[in-house]
TrEMBL record, chain B:
Keyword Methyltransferase tagged: no
Superkingdom, taxonomy of origin: Bacteria
Keyword Lipid biosynthesis attributed: no
Protein name: Aldehyde dehydrogenase
Length: 330, 288
């Protein structure tokens, strides 16, 4: 049996592709994967909930809050994933991504916009050289129920159109039935199809039912080559929660220690208020550490959150409460 | 048999149909007109005001879209529930205002009548404020009234029940939602009124009542960009000026404090309703 501890001795495995990382040997077969993932220590559910709740009570005020708001804006993946999305809506969202508040140019740009693959070209064109990245969901989002060929083609389409980040969904059916190797191979194949694009792997924690499964899925995705692990599609309730993100942050922290490769985390869905966003920032700092407090390593998948951040920002600047009438409708 | 323990009421705020304590955890002592201790009331903070505005905003689409008939019915229901608690309000008014039992009874009756009076206006205000306008062209040109939105109300210090009812009813009958800062000196009837409102089919958030210092809370409401109008009836000279200045930022409608002392028992007229109405005019082509 391959255990976590046996990798403590493994040296530098960073920046090495999936197939040559020493952790790859756990992916030799479904049984080795299973043995490894089930050998991970269990998550104390009550403890994780309590820890996340406790960190959520931290009070962040005045200048720290101001900094946290700007940081949170820089970490947002501004997302629109509706069946009714149009090129016009995506263009408007891109304009907002570059200048979230057109009346105040001191507001930083968001990290990326996140759209469906067919709208990637529109977003790339609208963002131009602004530095805001284009992320695209792929692999039969949001259910992930299709053949590997279709998923790879879906990814290739988005990459060819200029997406620099791919948000893929895992096959939860395969994961829950214990077919870890299938999930692993799909992630690895999509990673290969990404080329230079970053791969975010969506675990859809709302469908994984236990924190143990979240930890296993996190490790599985990281071993298979994920650059980011993401909580949810936003289509399933519950979406991102603090304790689930805590478990994932612990996983990336431990993965860096054992495999020497740093992986980012992206909670998505259900983060609507500044208070929520700041709770996540506290959680990152206290769990993975300050190294992750950076848009390259931590993102917030959200749409309505930005307006609340802007309203709080305006409140701090003007001293009066802001109203939604003065911000974009999205 | 041992003596019963006294079960005293905790006076809390009324926000979004619920009765929370102040976020700040503060309270203040409320005394009777003779200076005796009556109760501790919650002392609302600016954050309670913010929550109340959010609740009022959330309630606005539903309440403003309700039919005038339905709003009238609900106001009438409030009057019924108030009538049912007559003796409780009489006792509270005797304590708070130092009036006699008979006078207090008159004031409660007047408050009930005031609600019924405004309830009747719900489907009639459009008839006096709307119009069919003659225009030089083949168009029907119709003006109709619409509620302004979220209204902040600084309730009068005098008239803890009748005054309060007389400022809340005209605001909500036309479809606005409101955040009310109750009389600081005599806040207890306002929370008992909140209990009446909470049991009268009035959707949560249509009326939100804050107790505490108007001087502390009102400027935050006046400056709040998501508040559409402010009624400064209970704001004294300097506070009213500060609030009106802050209200200018997003062009709130402002109802200034009355110049002379108001007799709340007198016929109120339609002024308080029309102060918080917008006019929408529609041009419609006349068919041939």
């Amino acid at each position: 049996m391959v255990s976590l501890e046996s990798f403590g001795l493994v040296g530098d495995a960073g920046a090495v592709s999936t197939t040559t990382t020493p952790l790859a040997e756990v992916a030799a077969s479904n049984s080795t994967l299973r043995a490894f993932l089930h050998g991970l220590p269990g998550v104390d559910r009550v403890g994780a909930d309590a820890r996340a709740a406790m960190l959520g009570t931290r009070s962040i005020k005045t200048t720290s809050k101001k900094q946290a708001i700007d940081l949170a804006i820089r970490m947002v993946d501004l997302t629109t994933l509706e069946g009714a999305d149009t090129p016009g809506k995506v263009k408007a969202m891109c304009a907002k991504a570059i200048h979230p508040d057109p009346t105040d140019l001191s507001v930083p740009s968001v990290a990326a916009v996140c759209v469906y693959p067919d709208l990637v070209a529109t977003a790339v064109q609208a963002l131009g050289g602004s530095g805001v990245k284009v992320a695209s969901v792929a692999t039969a989002f949001p259910s992930g129920r299709s053949s590997l060929e279709v998923k790879v083609a879906d990814t290739a389409l988005a990459v060819a159109d200029g997406a620099s980040e791919i948000d893929m969904v895992i096959d939860r059916g395969a994961f829950l039935s214990g077919d870890y190797l299938k999930v692993f191979e799909q992630i690895a194949a999509v990673k290969a199809a990404c080329g230079s694009a970053h791969l975010k792997v969506i675990l859809e924690t709302g469908e994984l039912s236990t924190y143990d499964n979240v930890r296993r899925a996190s490790w599985l995705a990281m071993i298979a080559g994920a650059d980011f692990i993401k909580t949810s599609t936003g289509k399933v309730s519950p979406a991102a929660t603090l304790p689930v993100t805590l478990v994932m942050l612990e996983a990336v922290r431990d993965f860096l220690r054992t495999a020497g490769r740093k992986v980012g985390v992206k909670p998505a869905g259900g983060i609507r208020t500044t208070k929520d966003a700041i709770k996540y920032l506290v959680l990152v700092n206290e769990t993975a550490g300050p190294d992750w407090i950076d848009p390259d390593w931590f993102r917030l998948g959200a749409s309505s959150l930005v307006n609340d951040l802007l309203m709080q920002r305006q409140k701090m600047a003007t001293g009066r409460y802001a109203g939604p009438d003065y911000f974009t409708l999205d | 048999m041992s003596e019963r323990l006294a079960v005293r009421k905790t006076y809390k705020l009324f926000i979004g149909g619920a009765f929370p304590r102040s976020e700040s955890g503060r309270s203040y002592v409320v005394s009777s007109s003779k200076g005796e201790f009556l109760a501790n009331a919650s002392k609302a903070s600016r954050k309670d005001a913010r929550e109340a505005v959010a609740a009022a905003r959330k309630a606005f689409p539903g309440w403003s879209a309700a039919t005038a008939y339905n709003r009238g019915q609900i106001l009438y229901r409030v009057a019924e529930m108030l009538e049912g608690r007559r003796s409780q309000f009489v006792a509270e008014l005797v304590d708070a205002d130092g009036v006699g039992v008979r006078k207090a009874g008159e004031l409660v009756d007047a408050a009930v009548d005031r609600l019924v009076w405004y309830a009747g206006w719900s489907d009639k205000i459009g008839a006096i404020r709307g119009s069919a306008n003659p225009v030089a062209g083949p168009y029907f040109n119709l003006s109709s009234t619409e509620p302004t939105g979220v209204v902040a109300v600084v309730a009068p210090e005098a008239g803890p029940l009748l005054g309060l009812v007389s400022v809340i009813a005209p605001v909500i009958v036309t479809g606005n939602t409101c955040v009310v800062v109750a009389s600081e000196r005599a806040p207890l009837p306002s929370i008992t009124l909140a209990e009446v409102l909470a049991t009268s089919d009035l959707p949560g958030g249509v009326v939100n009542i804050l107790t505490g210092s108007a001087a502390e809370i009102a400027p935050w409401l006046a400056g709040h960009m998501d508040v559409n109008a402010i009624d400064l009836t209970g704001a004294d000279g300097e506070l009213a000026v500060t609030c009106e200045e802050a209200a200018a930022e997003n062009l709130k409608r402002v109802l200034r404090p009355p110049a002379a002392k108001v007799d709340w028992l007198a016929d109120p007229g339609t002024e308080r309703m029309t102060a918080f109405l917008e006019t929408k005019t529609v041009w419609h082509p006349i068919g041939t």
